[in-house]
Amino acid sequence: MTELWQQVLSGLGSGFIYASLALAICLVFQGTGAVNFAQGVMATASAYLAWSLVSNGMNFWLALVLVLAASFVLGALIERVFIRPVEGSSPLVMLTVTVALLIGLQAVVALIWGDDPQQLQSPFGGGSVEVFGARLTAQQLGAAAVVLVTLLLAGAFFRFTTLGLRMRAAAQNPASARLLSIDVGRMLALGWGLAATVGAVAGVIFAPTLGVSPAMMDSSLLLALAAATLGGFESRGGAVVGGLVLGVAANLASRYIPGIGSDLQLVVPFAVIFLVLLLRPQGLFGRVSSVRA
Amino acid sequence: MSGARTPAVVRPPAERDSEITVSTSHALPPAPRVGLRTAWWTAALAVVLLLAALAPASVISDFQFFQLNRVVTFAIAIGGLNLLLGWAGTISAGHGALFGIGAYTTAILVADHGVPWPLAVLASLVVGLVVGALLGLPALRLGGMNLGLITLAIALLLPPLLTRLDWLTGGPFGKTTPRVEAPPGLPFSSPQWLFLVNLVVLAVVFWLLSNMLRGRMGRALDAAASSRVMAAAHAIPTNRITVAVFAVSAAVAALGGALFHLTTRTSTPDSFTFLLSISLIAGAVVGGSRSFVGAIIGAAFVVFVPESLGGFVDPAAAGQWQQVVYAAALLLVIYFFPRGLAGLVRQARNRLVRRSSTNARSQEEQS
Q1: Which residue of A80, A87, A92 to mutate against B (max B Cβ within 10 Å)?
Q2: Are B194 and B69 in contact (CB under 8 A)?
C-alpha cells in the first residue's frame, strides 16, 4: 500500500511537468488555433538559459525570474515573426510551422549548448520529506509547489484581470473582440509569451530531475499533448487535470504492468487517449460544439 | 463550366460524371489537376528507363544508382503522405514508422522465411494497408489533427518496439538480407536493376493514385477537407473515405519502405526514427503536397540536401544543421510558395506558355 502511495505521489510529481506544458499548449491553441509542437523545446531553451546563468554563479531564484522574463519575450517574438504570417490559415499549415520550429529550435539549442547533458543543482537541497509514509525528495515537493502556484496564478490572471478577460475575448471571438477595440494581434503575442513563461517554469524548476539536454522535454511534450487532448484543448483546467492523471497513470503502468518498461511508458498516455476519445471525443472537460456549414 | 453559378447543388451521386458545385461561400479548391497526360509521361518514363538501363558504370556509378534508389523510394512514401497532406487535409507524423514497418516486413520475410523479394514487397503493401486501416479507425472519432497525435505515437514507439521484439526483428542489429540481383542474362548491376524496378513501381503507383484522385474520390476528399459538415450533408461518407485514404496512404508508404530495404539491405531500429517522419513531411511540403512531381522533388531534397551540407559544416554537428535546413526550408516554402516547388515550376511553365501564345490561358494560374 505504501508502495502504491509512493508511486502515485511521484507520478503526480512528474504530472506537474505535463500539466504546465499542457496548459501552455492550451493557451496557444485557444489563441492562435495552433497545436504548438515547439512548446517543449521552448521550455528546453529556457532551462539551458537558466543553467548558463546559474553555472556562472547567479542565484537560482534570480536566474529563474530573469529566464521567465526572457522566455516571455521570446515566446511573443516567435508569435510575431513565425506565426503572424500564417495567422488564420488551416490547422495543417500551423502545425507544419510549429513542427518546423520544433526541429529548428532544437537544433539551434544543440548547436549553442552542445549535445551533452548538463546538471542543474536543485534549489531545494538534497533532503527528503515523509508524506503519510511515502518518501519525497525536497526537489519533488518544491518543484510541484512552484508549478502549482504558477498554475493558480495563471488561472487567477484569466479569471480576475481585465487583461486576462481581453485575452479570452480575443481567443474566443477575434472579430467581436476587435469591435470592442481589443488589439487581437497583441493579445495573441501576449498569449504566446505567457505560454512560453508557463512552459519555462516547468522547464527550469524540473531541470534538476530531468537533466538539461536538447531532448529533455521530448517525452514530456508528448504527454502534455496527450494531456491536452484528454482534457480537451479548449479547457485550461482540463489540461492541468489531464496532465496530473497521465503522470500518475504512466508511473503506475510502468511499475505494475509487466512488459511496459520505461522505454514503452509512452504507450500509456496514448492508450488512455484512445479510450477517452472513444467515449468522449471532446475530451473530459471539453464542450461539444455544433457546427454549421 | 456549366452551372458554376448554381447555389449549393450537388447532382445525385448516381450520375457518373457529376461535378460537385457549391455556392461561392464554400468555394472548393479547383478540381485536382493530377491528370498527367499519360502518354507524355509514359514516354518520359521509357526514356529514363532506357537511359538508366544502357548507362555504363562510368557514367552513372553504382553509388549514384544507390542514391537514386533512395530518392525513388522516398518519393513513393511522400506520394502516399501527399494523399493526407494535400487531399485529405490531415497530417501523419508517423509515415516514417509505416515506412519502417514496410521495410521490416520485407526484411523479415526474406531473411527468415526465404520468401522471394517481390512477394515480400507485396506483403509489405498489405501489412501497411492493414496497419493504416487500424490507425485510421480511431480517426473516425478523433478527426483532423488528433489523428496527427495518434500517428505521432507510432512514430515514437516503433524504434523501441523494434529493439524490444528481438526474436522477430533482430533487436538493435536489425535484419540484413542478401543483395537483389538482376535476373540471369540481363547485364545490370544490382543497384541499376533495382532502380529500374523502383522507377516502374513509382510510375504505376503514381498513375493509380492520380487516377483515384481525379475521380469522385478526389472531389469527395476535397469537399471533406474544405468542410466536413458540408461534405456530409452532400452524402459524402466522410468517415469512410478518411479511413480508406489513410489505409491507402499507409500502404504506399510501406511499399516505399519495402523497396528502401531492398536498396539498403539492412534495416535497424534507428533507421526509422521520428526524424524520418519529419523528413517525409518536409519533403512533402517543400515539393508541394498536391503534386506527384512534387513528391519526387521533395524526395530529392530529403536525400541530397543533408548530403551536400556535409562539405560545409563540422561533421559532428551535421545532423543539427540538417534539422536547421529542414526547418528553414519548411518555413520559407510555407510563407512564400504555399504550393511547394512543384507549384513554382508549374507557375514558371505557365508563364512561358502564356508568353508564347496569348490564347493559352491556364486555369491553375488564377488560383
Answers
A1: A92
A2: yes
Is B306 near chain A, with CB under 8 Å?
no
What secondary structure letter does DSSP report for A212? Answer: B
Count of all residues that appear for chain A in the document: 293
Q: What angle do CA B225, B228, B234 make, to 5 degrees?
A: 110
CB contact under 8 A, A291 and B229: yes
Please name the residues in contact with B283: beta carbons below 8 A apart, sequence gap of 6 or more: B74, B78, B295, B298, B299, B301, B302
- Boundaries of domain holding B77: 61-272
B271 CA to chain A: closest CA distance, Å?
Answer: 18
- Any idea which residue has 493504416 for its cell? B132
Burial class (CB in 10 A: 0-12, 13-18, 19+), B361: exposed
Of B146, B320, B335, the CB nearest to A111: B320
Characterize the bridge pairing of strands B175-176 and B20-21: unpaired
Contact A293 B89 (CB under 8 A): no
Give the count of alpha carbons within 13 A of A240, CB side only: 17
Place of cell 477537407: B225
**A108/B324 Cβ within 8 A:** yes
Higher pLDDT, B275 or B10: B275
- CB–CB of A92 and B90 under 8 A? yes
Q: B21 forms bridges with which residues in the sheet?
A: B9
Q: In whole angstroms, what is the distance from residue B155 CA to residue B245 CA?
A: 19
B197 touches chain A (CB under 8 A): no
Span B31-74, pLDDT tens digits: 445 445 666 777 787 788 777 777 776 778 888 889 999 999 99
Find the closest chain A residue to B22 by CA distance.
A293
How many angstroms away from the CA of B36 is the closest CA of chain A? 26
Question: Among A88-97, A207-216, B50-59, which stretch is predicted with the lowest mean pLDDT?
Answer: B50-59
Helix (H, G, I), strand (E, B) or coil at A58: coil
Total tally of structural domains belonging to chain B: 1
Q: Does B164 touch chain A (CB under 8 A)?
A: yes
Q: Which residue among B160, B228, B229 sits closest to A264, beta carbon to beta carbon?
A: B160
ipTM, interface predicted TM-score of the complex: 0.83
By C-alpha distance, which of A250, A257, A221, A265 is closest to A13? A250
